[in-house]
Write a structure and sequence with these properties.
With 163 residues, the chain is mainly α. It contains ten helices and no strands.
Length: 163
């Protein structure tokens, strides 16, 4: 978060010195150059961790109209959720299948017992993430692994609830 604050201050300084229009033009130029020559950050992370390319939100939206609708409704969450998807693909966020099932159960998603692999459930994860406020998404980025319960902790919680 310090980096984000620092970048914001630098951009504000540039805008005050050179004007918003010029700064935006230069940023757009840089984006075009980068998109032509370099892979996305998610592709870099995926390659460095030796995993296959992960689906971007745009790719998921092409296959799932519900995700496309959420992207249009909440454009302010797009970047945060894409970062979380990258963390999911690199197993920083919800590293195991049991973590994924537990997360979906805790957030009200149905049919988590029929999940057989992490990749197949990504659209459900994205839908749950879009339901969260921006502050919660930022918390996930700062502390992606939620060790609120161990595996035995979940089991004991269920036993206590049914007693």
């Amino acid at each position: 978060m310090k980096d984000r604050h620092f970048i914001k201050e630098l951009i504000e300084l540039l805008i005050s010195k050179y004007g918003e229009k010029l700064v935006l033009e230069v940023v757009t130029e840089i984006q075009k150059q980068l998109s032509k020559s370099t892979p996305s950050p998610s592709e870099n992370k995926a390659k460095s961790h030796g995993i296959k390319k992960i689906a971007s939100l745009q790719e998921l939206a092409e296959k799932h109209s519900s995700i496309r609708t959420l992207m249009e409704k909440y454009p302010d969450k797009l970047e945060l959720i894409q970062e979380i998807i990258t963390m999911f693909a690199t197993r920083v966020f919800l590293p195991e299948l049991k973590d994924t099932k537990r997360y979906l159960e805790q957030n009200g998603a149905s049919n988590s017992s029929t999940i057989s692999n992490r990749a197949a459930v990504l659209p459900q994860i994205v839908e749950v993430l879009y339901d969260l406020p921006i502050e919660e998404l930022q918390k996930i980025l700062v502390n992606p692994i939620n060790n609120e319960y161990s595996s035995l902790g979940v089991l004991s919680e269920e036993i206590l609830q049914h007693s």
